[in-house]
Design a protein that fits this description.
The chain is an alpha+beta fold. It is built from 13 helices and 8 strands. The radius of gyration is 21 Å and the shape is globular. The relative contact order is 0.19.
């Protein structure tokens, strides 16, 4: 029997961000794993300390290029809660439209990378083709495909306002996306090669998900209710009708399937929000009549594409940020993936890690992890 170690990273062809994965194997079965990140440490929390809150919000947007909107919205939303700032209804609808569009493009991006890891280049390229119209909608709304800079304290930027003429075009784009996604899902479910690689692989039961505090689609694939939008932490979503997607098999297939069906729920939310834009009589998108005042650090939770996102900071009497703390979903999901990779074939290891949709740079923004995740 061969016993040894396989080291992957810090650069891997199928992962966009650097990480180091050590697999301790017997023959070709993983017996233990050690996942280390920290290559992209940027110390964002330290940089936020003492910044004017407006500048700190813009800095938060740069934490991630895939989920930039939810970071900026979380940072702005926290000071709005702390200073009791009223947000126009139209601005809230547009924030949610951009967030759900971002969920579509993020989930579809994961599908593309998952199929690349599987070696199915055709399916991977089709995912990016499917995603492209969503990126075009971002550009038409904000003028950017990556950092949209939509929310500001008190509302949204004027250039991100969605006009009446844009609504039919956006509806047409998301309808085509929905049609393409349904065809794509049918194609995947009928491909025995794909199913054989994702079904009963990387199984995480409810107990393990709870132990490592898995969040987002990663947890919901193990039948753990974790959608902060449904728990009342994001009351902006209360007027919308949508379902929390749950699967109970806990394998790679379940984690991908949760995201597939979440995309369909996001399309449903976007349609409702666009209808609300047409019906609302208040055309304001910004409330300039607010004053910043000192408040102690408070908590703000949102549901990012990868799961529960936590922001906390306070303002001093000069409107400067103090005691900033940010926790992104990947931090806990990676610990769960490191645990469940054991017992599976070495060729499945990177796929299992990727199935939680990790954002290593998102997680690295806080502190360098000098040791691997502890069990």
């Amino acid at each position: 029997m061969y016993e040894g170690e396989i080291a992957i990273g810090p650069v891997h062809s199928t992962m966009l961000e650097p990480h180091r994965l050590r697999l301790f194997i017997e023959d070709e079965i993983v017996k233990d794993a050690e996942l280390t990140i920290g290559v992209n440490h940027r110390g964002v929390e330290r940089l936020m300390e003492g910044l004017p809150v407006e500048k700190a919000c813009i800095l938060c947007e740069k934490i991630c290029g895939i989920c930039s909107h939810i970071h900026l919205w979380s940072a702005a939303r926290l000071v709005e809660i702390g200073c009791n700032i009223e947000i126009p209804e139209r601005a809230n609808h547009i924030r949610i439209i951009v967030e759900e569009l971002e969920r579509l493009h993020s989930h579809t991006l994961l599908f593309g990378h998952a199929f690349e890891i599987l070696g199915h280049e055709t399916m991977s390229m089709r995912c990016f083709m499917l995603r492209e119209p969503i990126m075009q909608v971002f550009f038409e709304i904000s003028g950017s495909r990556v950092h949209y800079s939509c929310p500001i304290i008190g509302g949204i930027r004027p250039r991100c306002n969605i006009s009446e003429t844009q609504i039919p075009h956006i509806l047409d784009k998301i309808s085509k996306y929905e049609e393409g996604l349904n065809k794509f899902l049918e194609r995947m479910l009928n491909d025995p090669m794909i199913i054989s690689r994702v079904k009963d692989v990387g199984v995480m039961d409810r107990k393990t998900a709870a132990k490592f505090h898995a969040v987002g689609p990663t947890a919901r694939g193990s039948n753990v209710k974790s959608d902060m939008r449904k728990w009342g932490w994001v009351p902006e979503y209360d007027p919308y009708d949508f379902d929390e997607i749950l699967f109970d098999s806990g394998d790679v297939f379940a984690r991908l399937a949760v995201r597939f069906y979440e995309c369909l729920e996001s399309v449903k939310i976007i349609r409702q929000a666009l209808d609300a834009l047409k019906d609302t009589s208040d055309k304001r998108i910004y409330n300039p009549n607010y004053e910043l005042h000192e408040f102690k650090p408070i908590n703000c939770y949102t549901e990012a594409q990868r799961g529960e996102q936590y922001y906390s900071y306070g303002l001093d009497d000069e409107g400067l940020v103090r005691q900033a703390k940010i926790r992104t979903p990947t931090a806990t999901n990676l610990g769960a993936m490191e645990d469940i990779v054991k017992g599976y074939h070495v060729s499945d290891a990177e796929l299992i890690i990727a199935s939680c949709d990790p954002c290593f740079t998102c997680t690295d923004r806080l502190m360098v992890l000098k040791e691997p995740f502890k069990k």
